[in-house]
Structure formats: C-alpha cells, structure tokens
Amino acid sequence: MRIGIIGAGNIGSALARRFARVGYEVLLSNSRGPQTLTGLVQEIGGPVRAVTAAEAAASGEAVVVSIPYGRHRELPAEPLRGKVVVDTCNYYPERDGHDPDLDEDTTTSSEKIKAHTEANLVKAFNTLPAATLRDGGRPKGDPGRLAIPVSGSDEEAKAVVAGLIRDIGFDAVDAGTLSQGGRKHQPGTKVYAQALNAAELDALLRAE
C-alpha cells in the first residue's frame, strides 16, 4: 500500500519510519515543501519520498493527517474526498486557538476535519507518544504489545486502518463511531497518553 502523510512532525515522522520499516511506500510531506525533508527521508531510508501535501493527498491510497488541528482548513480537501484518511490530530486550545464548537463539546475535532475533507475519516494514533509509535511495536502474541483506539463511522475504512495498526506492531481496539468513539480517546480521557494492552484499553473505553 502507498501511504501519504501530511505533516512530518513527531507523530508523522514516527509513522513514516514504522510504515517504511514494514515495506509500505511512504509519501511524506509538510507545509514547508519537499526540499526541507531531504535529510529526514535519507535518515529514514527505504521506500520513502518527500512530496508536497497535495501530492501526498492525491497519490496516497490511505492518507495520514498529522498536523496541528488549528491548521486543518489548510488540508487539500479535493484529493482527500472519499479517501481513507487517518486523523492523528488533537485539539489543544492553547496551541490551536479556541474553537467554540469544541469548547462546548457540540462536535469533535475529527468530525470537523471530516466535514472539511469529505473523507472516510478514521481517528487513530492520537493517544500514544511519538517515541512509543516509533519504537513500541511488538509481534502479535507478545505480552508487551500495546493497543491503539480507532474510531470512525465507515466500517471499511476502520478495517483498513486497523490493518495498518496491526502491521506496525500494535493491536487496534474499536472505540465506536467518529462522534461517540472520538470523544472516548481525545485529550483528557482515561485512555489518553496511556500505554495499555488491548484488554485494558477496551475496558477503559467501555467505561468512558
């Protein structure tokens, strides 16, 4: 599979490493242009190319969005329409500026990104630190294997993302729909920033 990544910060670059390590073709982009990613691409090695955000969106069979939530309106919406998009973003008012809809909990950050892109959006990879995503993958059956919550309203898209999670050494735990599930693993919840196995994560998600 060819994976586009929009955002080459801590989470985006960690996922680029993991996906490249298991053999996926990775199209990595940031807001400053491909020329600023030369060193990172060389460091990661393997099937990774630096491209523009528009190219990552258009050419990725699945696209990971890993940018500050406050900049989500800068995403190239047209090429993401109808595509499997993985939203790793978290809303931090002190960084992103206050969003009244999110402050009042009338919707979720993922639903707003979905509305902008019209993608088959799945929220994942937003609870664990970048270092854990980069180095924490374990083989199936390993007692130290960690789990990642997944929420979305398109079951086929969730299945695709769950497969990506398993391929890089984690278990996927279904948190529910984009609205209900997304609220269960956003910042401030019991599972956020917690290293949990699948059983532990599932139990906490059910308790939210």
Automatic annotation (TrEMBL):
Name assigned to this protein: NADP oxidoreductase coenzyme F420-dependent
Stored InterPro entries: NAD(P)-bd_dom_sf, P5C_Rdtase_cat_N, STEAP_metalloreductase
Top-level taxonomic group: Bacteria
Entry keyword set: Oxidoreductase
SUPFAM superfamilies in the record: NAD(P)-binding Rossmann-fold domains
Domain named Pyrroline-5-carboxylate reductase catalytic N-terminal: residues: 2-91
A Pfam family assignment: F420_oxidored
Alphabetized Gene3D superfamilies for the sequence: NAD(P)-binding Rossmann-like Domain
Organism: Streptantibioticus cattleyicolor (strain ATCC 35852 / DSM 46488 / JCM 4925 / NBRC 14057 / NRRL 8057)
Gene Ontology molecular-function annotations: oxidoreductase activity
